[in-house]
Amino acid sequence: MPDTRQLPVPDGLDGMRVDAGLSRLLGLSRTAVAALTDEGRVAVDGRAAGKSDRLVAGTWLEVELPEQDRSTRTAAPPEVVAGLTVLFEDDDIVVVDKPVGVAAHPSPGWAGPTVLGGLTALGVRVSTSGAAERQGIVHRLDVGTTGVMVVAKSERAYSLLKQAFRDREVDKRYHAVVQGHPDPTRGTIDAPIDRHPKHDYKWAVVAGGRPSVTHYDTLEAFRAASLLDIRLETGRTHQIRVHMAALRHPCVADLTYGADPVLAGRLGLDRQWLHARALGFPHPADGRWVEFTSPYPPDLARALELLRE
């Protein structure tokens, strides 16, 4: 029986040939990947892909692997990750509080700590579903974003959680401190996002991009900034950062998207003020609604107090 895998193209593989990129993602030889494309077993966003086609970050690959190819995948290496906290664990899922400076999983160009490596070091066994370096990962947070993440432990949980994210049955809530005061204080940003036309490392609101919807509500206003509660309807790369920058209210200290470096310095921040505050979803075992929250990490809490003062 075939083993079908769906996985997003990471930033580090943008522009790479399909055969080279899949070779890295799946741990297969380029010859083996070329054979898969020749047999029509590789698709990008639902369309058949050739081995020499170029990958685009943020698109979705679907690969049909022969069952025996599972044995060629490798797990994330164990690595003790300081600050990685397990909030909940059962037979199907593990919910963690991700610290800053930690990626969700290994990827080309990233040599730092990962959630998967940290869980392996803690003795947590996750689902084998997904590409070799991202087994069990059903959603991601940026390296510079902290907060709640869920990782699948069982194969059933992986499939059901991925479907829940696709069907928008997951309540993803973030807190962000943005520069200035959004007007209106509560609103919805419905603007398509795609790769920035001039800077490969950035994303932007682009006509014809992927549909992206962000809901925000002001919780607290300060002299120079506002604390927002944000709910994501979609989950694009850098979505909150891009949408708030498009409103001319970038996340405080998000220098990539136009934040004021002087304010960032005064608050002692070297990363954007953005935190995955809560995550709610139907539990894959029985469908009951579960929700988990994360307190602000020390750097964000300290910056918030400085703004209040």
* Separate helix tally: 7
Shape: globular
Strand content: 25-35%
Compute the separation of the termini in Å.
Answer: 62 Å
Number of strands: 15
* Major sheet: 9 strands, mixed
Q: How many whole angstroms does the radius of gyration measure?
A: 20 Å
Share of helix among residues? 10-25%
Order of helices and strands: EHHEEEEEHEHEEEEEEHHEEH
The average pLDDT value, as a whole number, equals 89
Class from secondary-structure proportions: alpha+beta
Q: What's the oligomerization state? A: single chain
pLDDT < 50 runs, ≥5 residues: 68-74
Summarize the structure.
With 309 residues, the protein is an alpha+beta fold.
Fold and architecture overview:
With 309 residues, the protein is an alpha+beta fold. Helix content is 20%, strand content 28%. The strands form three sheets. Strands 5, 6, 7, 8, 9, 12, 13, 14 and 15 form a nine-stranded mixed beta sheet that branches. Strand 10 and strand 11 form a beta hairpin. The chain is globular, with a radius of gyration of 20 Å. It starts with a strand and ends with a helix.
Helices and strands in order, then pairings?
Layout: E1 3-8, H1 18-26, H2 30-38, E2 42-44, E3 47-48, E4 60-65, E5 85-89, E6 93-98, H3 115-121, E7 146-152, H4 155-166, E8 171-179, E9 186-190, E10 193-195, E11 203-205, E12 213-221, E13 225-232, H5 239-246, H6 261-267, E14 274-282, E15 289-293, H7 298-308
Parallel strand pairs: 7-14
Antiparallel strand pairs: 1-4, 2-3, 2-4, 5-6, 6-7, 8-13, 8-14, 9-12, 10-11, 12-13, 14-15
Helix pairs in contact: 1-2
